[in-house]
Here is the input.
Amino acid sequence: YFKGTWDEKFDAWKTKDYDFHIYNGNSVKVPFITSTKDQFISVFDGFKVLGLPYKQGNGLISGFDTFRKLLSLPYKQDKDKRQFSMYFFLPDTKDGLPLLIKKLASESKFLDDKFPNKKVEVGHFRIPKFKISFELETSDVLKELGVDLPFYPGSLTKMVDSHMDKHLSVSKIFHKSFIEVKEEGTEAAAITFGVVSNGCSLKAFIPPQIDFVADHPFLFLIREDFSEKILFIGQVFNPLDG
Here is the structure.
């Protein structure tokens, strides 16, 4: 589970509706958050990258039991030294996301030098508010990868103290995730659970002033910057499809 507050929050009163261009040639009205402050942006051939850091000391919460406990306790920001950031990979063209994703998938070191570390002056700057949820039944995928054992009748019998039929196994595995981006920050979560049945590189260049208007499909990810570990990654085709 992840919940982070932007290091510099966006003013809600500045949020306005603008067009977001989707792949079928149409556009939808979407609330965009904006700022005139300098931002972490790098420009590459064919795309730009925006980095929005979160306040240090809030972010990842591991384990739902820990999460429940934290709901009623103040979070002590001075103990967590990790630094989380959200990054937006915005193609230059409105239909450029597939090519960008292809590069990411085919070049193992594509991300190595793509994360901006210097603030630049911005011109037009807007990113859409969005909320995305996703659910996938992964049993077939896991079986294709050779993960068969949990699905065999009786495979969980010795692992579970149950009064059910002794031939326990996994019948389905679901993966659910969601992410929400707004003026205050980001909230995201991912969970995978099983249903038990009873036996039956390019160098960046920095122009004097940079526009970053995410009004067409883009890629996003959340990363812990010191360890360089990626927690969440996704793509936005239509911010209203959450």
Notes: The first strand starts at residue 2 and ends at 5.
